[in-house]
Amino acid sequence: MRIAVSGSIATDHLTVFPGRFTDQLIPGQLDHVSLSFLVDDLEVRRGGVAANIAFGLGGLGLGPLLIGAVGTDFGPYEVWLKEHGVDTGGVLVSGERQTARFMCTTDQDANQIASFYAGAMTEARDIDLAALVGDGTRPDLVLVAPNDPEAMLRHTRQCRELGIPFAADPSQQLARLDGPQVRALVDGARWLFTNEYEAALLLERTGWTRDEVLDRVGTWITTLGGEGAHAARGDGTSVRVPAVPDVPVTDPTGVGDAFRAGFLAATARGLALTAATRLGCALAAEVIRTVGSQSYDATPERLLANLTAAYGTEAAAEIATRLPAGTREGGDGS
Ligand SMILES: Nc1ncnc2c1ncn2[C@@H]1O[C@H](COP(=O)(O)OP(=O)(O)OP(=O)(O)O)[C@@H](O)[C@H]1O
Ligand SMILES: [Mg+2]
Description:
This protein is an alpha/beta fold. The chain contains twelve helices and 13 strands. The chain is globular and about 60 Å long. The model is unreliable at 326-334 (pLDDT under 50). The structure holds adenosine-5'-triphosphate (ATP) and magnesium ion.
């Protein structure tokens, strides 16, 4: 099964200021702010929702197609993704703008000053899904993740036109989408992913009741942080899966993305809803114990340990047999 992931591709540039911002911001002198902080520890982390999810799927051997827009600075990041089994054939390289970048400085009181440069991401709307899938590489599923809103709407619309099943993952972009836009992204999705907060926001934006949403999507999966995840269908199916217990929370960035990768990899391998939700939780647990969203190594041993700890030997074994270690299918990442 070939999965395409459309969404943001970005890097985070994180620095630490060993003083206090508030010592530099002098009351009464804030009309003309011109500050420069001498910072330590520049850390560049790979991210972007689509890249994170594709990384997770690649690690599980699914050979996903990544669809998104980047700048000419993407080179080393592209090499990294390819090395981790991602097919970057759906990536558009902008001639003018750099890859989206989150820049954040944290001071010793944990105050932060940050900016997000969308950059090339705004050009994702120029990517024509029809042209990408026309050469016999038609995906069986397209996940539409947070991105330039026009791109999200276009790729969802194109999935409908092309008759390709799609998964809706509007996540953090829900905040800036209006009701008609959210309805357009969700209606007819095979899978809908939200966290708890986003689930409430989605109902508020669409004006739909929970049942009305369930009538319009195949399955709605809601992640519940340390409580695990819940999945529901219009036919009354309801599944609740606890999270992996006792996971040291080192850095939660990207847990939601890893959950989606684990869940979709499992469904691609023919596992049922409960097992898929469990694999989502097991992969997310690996992200949470490492710093960054693509620093984990989801070895079969680690996943099996997580699955066994949370769901018992039998359930773990059932999933493990469907996820052949180290093998890749659906593309070689070239
Ligand atoms: N403390 C925790 N311990 C174990 N697993 C966790 C914990 N927090 C989150 N998870 C796992 O990660 C999954 C996704 O978490 P969450 O609902 O917080 O996603 P999210 O809010 O979309 O996060 P983000 O957007 O920051 O990636 C959960 O379903 C769960 O399996
Ligand atoms: Mg999230």
